[in-house]
Fold this sequence. Notes:
The chain is of the alpha+beta class. It is built from five helices and 13 strands. It folds into two domains: 2-86, Gyrase A, domain 2 (2-Layer Sandwich), CATH 3.30.1360.40; 91-224, Cyclophilin (Beta Barrel), CATH 2.40.100.10. Helices cover 23% and strands 30% of the residues. The strands form three sheets. Strands 5-12-9-10-7-6-13 form a seven-stranded mixed beta barrel. A four-stranded antiparallel β-sheet has the order 1-2-4-3, covered by helices on one side. A two-stranded antiparallel sheet has the order 8-11. It is elongated. The mean pLDDT is 92.
Amino acid sequence: MAETLQLRIAGPDALILYLGDSMDAQTNVAVQAAAAAIEARLGDELVDIVPSYASVLIIYDPLRAGHVSVARRVRAALAGLDTAAHAAGALVTLPVYYAAESGADLEALAARAGLSPDEVIALHSGREYRVYAIGFAPGFAYLGEVDARIAAPRLATPRAKVPRGAVAIAGRQTAVYPAPSPGGWNLLGLCPRRMFDPQAQPCMPVAVGDRVRFEPVDRDTFLELGGELP
């Protein structure tokens, strides 16, 4: 891993650590281990740490530290990095109502793949996904990777409004929209669980490094769980 490490200045109070250049579980495990080690090493001088697919953004207090001292301690934190404890995050199961009325692109995606809607649902819900990053909006977790047979490009024209809870695919990533917003991903269904609730503790049901499974539920169960149809 040492050969792929790159530590660069990302602003007057930030450094960014690159641990690779691909989206894969092994790199992401290293990202989680590095973030935990850096957080422990910097302590109160750390303002925020943002892990992503293959990088870690380190934001520190410029009144208490500088680029050189932070970089030195980051490298020390990475010496002999142990990734074993970060290999498998928590498993979170999210219910999904897959249907034409809840997933506007389900039938088109199935036709594009030469599959039935039921086959698309089986493929999408039949594997675990790793939370690679959280961004775009609070609670928007980028999950990978979907089966190659149902991978699909973003829509040529994004929708002006995607409903909260929309379960979608773009490329080989999948996600749940945490709030109504514009979006260009392919919609398969709806999840009744809130992906971001500022009043809850924790405010998001998933964290980077966790594993996610989607569980198909019927319309009545979706509504009983608090889901809302658009």
